[in-house]
């Protein structure tokens, strides 16, 4: 068996670091993918962002104090300092000072804070700061909106909880920033990434290659790729309890996969019909022609993040998640069989995404590695609120931001289950998206009942 992709990267990094041992830090497999993907993007290089949006009563947030808090927090974490770069063909984190910005965004007359924030995020340069806090309020708006946005290479779900807690504390105490991370923080980050790389290398086994080859050999790809003009629908469902709680993720896999087939079956033809409305229960009122959707013929590549830091690794900020791939089909009835396959996949969850793509192609898949849809599930109990002087922000959700796939579904599990369904407006007509979303909600509710 040839050397793993991870082992090859580590050899190149060590050769680079031998010349400059204190200038560069290594990257996880996920971080490397973000850097490579943005440079190969046909629409031009852009960072893959993770934004959170919070609403506060107007005048709550002091922008200058917020800027000090953002810089103070960034200075503690190597992933929020310096810059991600490719040096001699090797993706690395270049050590440096805090990479953070906090600013008030101008809201032009006749526009809203939401529009101003989305425009600012769309214009985020590839080499922009790893952490941005953008504040906006329209002339006639009683609330101001705050976007907490991070370069995805610098964060994962665990990192978001750390940041909201630390920003709340730094703002409350009006902390003054340091010039950058200390030696202990740099060592902790380096240790965490090296442990992650060792785990990724160890997971690239012949057994894992064989598993993913069998699972993904039929993938062809329906033409996934990044989406810049997007729209979103959302619905709130009762939070699953008891046995249903453990079935949430496989139920989401089934529902999103089936909905994606319906959407891909209508998107290229452009059949719109009369769009219906979606009520609180998520059922369509005469959603046009979408019921005739047949979806793509073969399985679709449905990606989802999974994993975390290796056992014993320091809790360093960064992206330590892997992207797993589920071969999504139209069928939703046999959730038990789907769950069995999913559990088998989790036995090989550490296999890096690039190794999974290589295994699938070796097994005959005509798949390039692009994802037809993405699914994320966040447990809100793990993320403290972002509060300023005791005023906790009300989290809100903005449609229109760029997506890494033509369809992205995210579910947030807190006091209720919030399901957000975002799609590429340039590819899928609105009526088709509404019909697919209603189908997703009906399928999900049926599995969790």
Question: How would you sum up this structure in a few lines?
Answer:
By secondary structure, the protein is an alpha+beta fold.
Task: Describe this structure as you would to a colleague.
The protein is α+β, with helices and mostly antiparallel strands. It is built from twelve helices and 16 strands. The relative contact order is 0.18. Residues 267-295 have low confidence and may be disordered.
- Give the fraction of residues assigned to helices: 25-40%
Major sheet strand order: 8-16-15-11-9-10
Low-confidence stretches: 267-295
Note the beta-strand portion: 15-25%
Number of discrete helical segments: 12
Strands, count: 16
Largest sheet: 6 strands, mixed
Order of helices and strands: HEHEHEEEHEEHHHEHHEEHHEEEEEEH
Give descriptors for this structure:
449 residues; 5-stranded mixed sheet; 12 helices; 6-stranded mixed sheet; alpha+beta
Ordered list of secondary-structure elements with their pairings:
Elements (H helix, E strand, L loop, with lengths): L4 H15 L4 E2 L3 H12 L8 E9 L5 H12 L6 E7 L2 E9 L1 E5 L8 H10 L8 E6 L6 E9 L5 H17 L9 H21 L2 H11 L13 E9 L4 H4 L1 H20 L32 E7 L15 E7 L6 H12 L6 H10 L10 E7 L7 E2 L2 E2 L1 E3 L10 E7 L2 E9 L5 H19 L1
Parallel strand pairs: 5-6, 9-11, 11-15
Antiparallel strand pairs: 1-4, 2-7, 2-14, 3-4, 6-7, 8-16, 9-10, 12-13, 15-16
